[in-house]
Amino acid sequence: MVGRIFFVLTCVFLAVWILTWVFHFSTDKSEKPPFTLYSSAIDDFAMFKNDEDGKHFSDCKSNEYTEAQFHGLLPQFYCRQLIMDNRLPDTINGVPVDAKFIQNENFSFKIAPSVVNKHEIPLYPLMESMSGRVDLEMPDDVFCITDNGIEFVDMKTNSVNKEKSDLFMQVFVQKNFAFPAHIVSGNPSVKKEYDNGYLLTDSNDKLYHLKMMRGRPYLRYIDLPDGMIPKHIFVTEFRNHKSLAFVSDTENSFWMLSAKNYSFTQVELPAFNPEAESMTIIGNFHDWTISISSKDALCYYAIAADGLRCLKTYEVPDAEPTTIQRVGNYILFVQLRLLSSLDGDVKPRVAFLGE
Amino acid sequence: MFYKEWIKTRWFYLVCILVTFSLCGYEILNINRLVSLKGASHLWEVAMFRDAIFIDLLHYVPLLVGIVAAVVQFVPELVQKRLKLTMHLPQGYVRSLSEMLAFGFVALLAIFCGNLVMLIVGLNSVFAGEIVSHIILTAVPWYMAGLFAYELVAWICLEPVWRRRILDILIAVACLRVFYMSPLPEAYNSMLPWLGVVVVIGLALPLTSVVRFKEGRE
Amino acid sequence: MIDCINLTHYYGKRCIYENLSFSVPRGRILGLLGKNGTGKTTTINILSGFLKPRSGECRIFGQNIIGMNPELRRDIGLLIEGHVQYSFMTIRQIERFYARFYPKWDKNVYYDLMSMLKVAPNQRISRMSCGQRSQVALGLLMAQNPQVLILDDFSLGLDPGYRRLFIDYLRDFVKSSERTVFLTSHIIQDMEKLIDDCIIMDYGKILLQMPVNELLEKYRQYNLKLTDNSDLSGIEDIFHPMAMHGNVEFGSFLEMDKLQSLLQSKGIKYENLTSQKVNLEDAFIGLTGKY
After folding, report:
1. What are phi and psi for residue A312, nearest 5 degrees?
2. Which among A69, C7, C18, C148 is least surrounded, fewest beta carbons within 10 Å?
């Protein structure tokens, strides 16, 4: 009896899963959206698309541009091209510029749910932030934050470095860090300009900045805006040293943490959930273009670098579902997938689509 | 009943123990060799940042072991319909078959647990507990697939009707595919309890074939 | 001891038989005889609970075989076609395996029989000859000491020596303590030494059901020479007439005088009519035909 019920349930599960897969495999087409950046020169989004008919340069108002004009609209982004063409302006938006200044201020930032939702191993290498050398170096140990403290484990011997752990532990105790940590975030890679260590929240969601400077621990408590509870932290380490991190909170607000005075500025964006939406930021000294894409929407926001107010938004119109897709969604009103582009997990994801 | 299963399958299980433990041992030796070649830090880093789990060789081993275990145990019962002898024994046939399945399941479970313990001990000598649990959590679905494959192949072997057996094979392939959907480490963490439930309830599946056999479906 | 009532079974649309009823009283041996493919194994399968008949039911010890208390099977011995046993075991292992299931187990009977086989106790059954395997299967049945035996075509694959040996042992075993036997066979030779009652099956029907003694007593094989072109086929009570150069051979249950009046009434001209009693095998062939 149990076997029969199990058999029937298994068949139903497999049938819905396979049909969903076959349906999407045969009907889904992904169209690459045009490359879009905010141009302060026209106060509009400039777009570049490369398809079978060749390259198209335009803006939201459907004005067409030549390739050279297009480069001129985005002088910071095409800085190197303009230098080559000997067309780099002396001032942009009233600010005197040169190549070095522009390149120093430019940054790009990308986060995707698949990375945010990844199962990471809770071990973190803490680099020397002030080694005095140009190149960063991976340490021989990693730290982990346990329920009771911080421990450094030596990778060669796979044993706890008691001395170093105690040294750091003293500082954590001094700063009233409540173990264990909720968030530990950093960029453990030597392929970056400099190292800014880690941002941590303790079990009371208080925020701390951890670094190692000349072998000594550096732990600083950071005041949070009222009522703000960080949920995801992304340490930036951009060349301009202005920001320490981007932070998204439990209300899905998006913040920039300043590296200079540890102050928070909210970025004027609608709710952004890093667990379900991807974000790219291409920034320069004047403005940032932020794109947020979710399963069924893609939106661009122009943000003023100074004050982080929203200058302009552009929502990419949704592609109309084809007749086959509409009929398919009607027939397959229950869809089941095991994989998702949002994370690497395998688990049943059921969608009810009755139209 | 256990006596019969033991006589029938002891050589297989002996070979199985030798092979699976040798493979686990080989993987551990291999990791230690890499440590001496490239240094422990390198291995830790590829584990932490590049999704390496070092025991990829074992990916399909439990699956194969499960399939062969069921074949070795149940095909001799099917040749010349020898199963009739078992079902004629003076105890309920469901009980007889449950005992046979329990034997195979427990034997596999013991071997798989042994494998995992060996891996845990071996990995612990090189890696921190966090990395070890990361690797083991990645491997557990493979071992569950082995157990489920054993049940599914038993189900297919015991099925008396050939046409239905082909359908069963297709279903089994689809079922086992679920265990191999993602190569990413820890991809099955949230699914593991469910897979566990499926593997336990799956023991009832071969019994449906036996009921059909008993009814004389051909 | 064994009662089958109105068994009807089909494989798909092919009728195996309809309304087969028989019973085997305590101490009797019933043989179900038929050529290959007439439904002998089907009947065994129904009787041993491996097949649900389309309709009808089988009872052993008064209990319907479907849903029978499994413990009752201690007293039912089953021999599967081809003397199939767990061939991965040795003769010692298989004895130890079965012994646990049967409280009346008598291993001496088994080992006595095995000692005559001249095989080592640790030889696997799979490496034995068919004849030796039949002795193992018989030894296990005897050690089980059941009240009822169901034997499916035990003569299959046995050379005459082993077949005779099997029959002698079996008859002795059965008759010594009033056991009840239902068996099937497609080889009829030697069978009259063993069975008390017989059912002879043809494709899709039952030809005959009677005690063997009565069959041998009543059945006659006739020979005659036809003097005109008449045809005997299709006449009731005359089985499978075979003509060769005008000489016809056929079987019948009619006595000589009754047969003569039957032929007369049909207007058949003949001469040299002779009759003779025959053994069970000839009667079987006469009843089922050579083809």
Report:
1. -165, 150
2. A69
Q: Is residue A286 part of a domain?
A: yes
pLDDT > 80? residue B216: no
| In contact, C123 and C91? CB cutoff 8 Å | yes
A near B: at least 3 beta-carbon pairs less than 8 Å apart: yes
Work out the mean pLDDT of chain C and round it to a whole number. Answer: 84
Is A50 part of any domain?
no
| Residue that the structure tokens 């929203």 belong to | A310
Q: What 3-state class would DSSP assign to A21?
A: helix
pLDDT higher at B39 or A1: B39
Q: For the residues A319-339, what does the mean pLDDT come to?
A: 82
Q: Are residues A257 and A329 in the same domain?
A: no
Considering only A197-206, B1-10, B171-180, C169-178, which range has the smallest mean pLDDT?
Answer: C169-178
Give me the domain span that covers residue A151: 108-316
- Which residue in C82, C86, C101 is closest to B90 by CB distance? C101
C-alpha distance from C53 to closest chain B C-alpha (Å) = 9
Tell which B residues from 95 to 124 touch C, by Cβ distance under 8 Å: none
Nearest chain B Cα to C11, which residue?
B218
| Strand pairing report for A183-185 and A198-201 | antiparallel
Burial label for A140, CB within 10 Å (0-12, 13-18, 19+), is: middle
- Cα A145 from Cα A184, distance rounded (Å): 9
Nearest by CB to residue A123, choosing from B40, B128, B188, is B128
Query: Which of B80, B84, B215 is closest, CB to CB, to C52?
Result: B215
Mutate to test the interface with B, among C50, C105, C147 (most CBs of B within 10 A): C50
At C136, the amino acid letter reads V
B8 touches chain C (CB under 8 A): yes
* Cβ contact C74–B90 (<8 Å): yes
Q: Which CATH architecture has domain C2-214?
A: 3-Layer(aba) Sandwich (3.40)
Nearest C-alpha of chain A: how many angstroms from B178? 8
- The 10s digit of each residue's pLDDT in A84-100 is 888 888 888 888 988 89
Please tell me the distance from the alpha carbon of residue C199 to that of residue A213, in angstroms, as a whole number: 101
Decide if A12 touches B, using CB distance below 8 A: no
In a domain, residue A179? The reply is yes
Q: What is the rounded end-to-end Cα distance, in angstroms, of chain B? A: 26
| pLDDT at site A248 | 96
Between chain C and chain A, are at least 3 CB pairs below 8 A? Answer: no
Of C31-35, C75-79, C229-233, the one with minimum mean pLDDT is C229-233
Residues ≥6 apart with Cβ < 8 Å to B127: A158, B43, B44, B47, B135
Q: What pLDDT score was predicted for residue A355? A: 45
Task: Provide the pLDDT confidence category of residue B218 given band limits of 50, 70 and 90.
Answer: low
A155 touches chain B (CB under 8 A): yes
The highest-confidence range among A318-327, B55-64, C69-78, C113-122, by mean pLDDT, is B55-64
pLDDT tens digits, one per residue of C236-272:
888 888 888 778 888 888 888 888 888 888 888 888 8
Joined tokens for residue B178? 């679920």
Minimal Cα distance from C42: which residue of B? Answer: B216
Q: Topology of C219-288 in CATH?
A: Alpha-Beta Plaits (3.30.70)
